[in-house]
Design goal:
The complex is a heterodimer of chains A (268) and B (155). Chain A has helices at residues 9-15, 29-34, 66-72, 75-82, 87-92, 95-101, 109-114, 132-135, 206-213, 220-233, 244-267, and strands at 2-4, 20-23, 42-45, 55-56, 59-61, 118-123, 126-131, 136-138, 141-142, 149-154, 162-168, 179-185, 191-196, 203-204. Chain A contains eleven helices and 14 strands. In chain A, helix 3 packs across helix 4, helix 9 packs antiparallel against helix 10 (220-233) and helix 10 (220-233) runs antiparallel to helix 11 (244-267). Chain A is globular. The longest helix of chain A has 24 residues, at 244-267. In chain A, a hairpin with a 2-residue loop joins strand 8 and strand 9 (141-142). With 155 residues, chain B is of the alpha+beta class. In chain B, strand 3 (48-51) and strand 4 (54-57) form a beta hairpin. The model of chain B has no long low-confidence stretch (mean pLDDT 94). Chain B is globular. The termini of chain B are far apart. Chain B has five helices and five strands. Classes of the chains: A alpha+beta (268), B alpha+beta (155). At the A-B interface, helix 2 and helix 5 of A face strand 4 of B.
Chain lengths: 268, 155
Amino acid sequence: METFYPSTVEEAVTVLEEGVTPLAGGTDLMVEVNFGHSRPERVLALRRVEELAEWDGNRIGAGVVWRRLERHGPRALAQAARTVGSPQIRNAGTIGGNVATASPAGDGHPFLAAVDASIEVRSTEGSRLIPWDEFFVGVKETALRPNELITAVVLPDELPERHAFGKVGVRNAMVISTVCCVVTRGSDGTTTVALGSVAPTPMRAYRAEQMISAQAQPSESDLAEFARRVAEEVQPITDHRSTEAYRRHASGVLARRLLERCLVESAA
Amino acid sequence: MIVSFRLNGKEATFPVGHPASLLDVLRADLGAAGAKNACEQGECGSCSVLLDGVLVCSCLVMAADVEGSEVATVEGVNPADSSLHPVQQAMDDAGAVQCGFCTPGIVVAAADLFDHNPHPSQAEIKEALAGNICRCTGYGAILRAFEQLAGRDAP
């Protein structure tokens, strides 16, 4: 096994090519290794690349760990970070690794989708920004090319006034999402709702968004219709973690609850 | 390739031929068997160590990635001398050890908590130990041990 220990992004991208495996916190990769599903021969160890851990306003370096997001992130992203794994996992796992793995259950993804974030990637040819809905292309599949390194997630300059994250799982700590969701609501009523674990990639419930954004002060029946549309738009499957029917139901309940949380805060 | 790092304050080296975990190297190559191997997927916390002062699961650290780093296992939570760390003494006093398999990981996680926050609340203690599973379900005594150490009355 060959290991590279770059100290800058520039050095890192010079060795990155097909067959080289980037290693950040290891919380996904090492599970694959320990269970014999992956045996990387050439490893690009990124822990020493300090610039990847830089966080400047709306540009969050790929090497920023959950622990920092939990303490200093925008509210809904901090709430999501707080539910990832355990202290040990949050100390090691990074936002860059979370998007790179592209698990349908990635807890960081709904926030990125809800605020229309982009993923910044770099190769020896330069940098490019990939909008979240072009980056995630399938279950554990992304638009990243073999010679590209994820360097940051980039949030919009202005975040919606209110945003909230929620997650349904079988217990509190150390749990992988059955459904996770972020709802945002701007001061003009513009609402977004993004969900994870209910489709091959993170997704937005655009028809529900359109309907509720038009309501300045949603009534009880508007809220019920919002929940119904969210449940209709998600595309969950039945697997070892839950059923299609439960995920669909929980998506509507969770989205409505998070919207109500945003509305209460707007009124206060 | 030979990897060099500091283990519990002493220089250590090991050869790397395949993508082994730090946990495997500690136990198989370096004779540091305090960190325990159970789930190999970061869920149980029995392999907890400090990597450059940060609490992590050693089963999820690629061994090659500790090059130049400092690792502390349960054998090194009290590096100054061989006496017990206060969290070890607290567990002993409270009878907070049953089969003992989770104990090293709990000691490392609790030492990390108390070294940063000498008087944690009950919620902070529970949160700090959320990644450590005790399959004897001996959580009551473990929690009482650390509440007493934090200077709180046990529930």
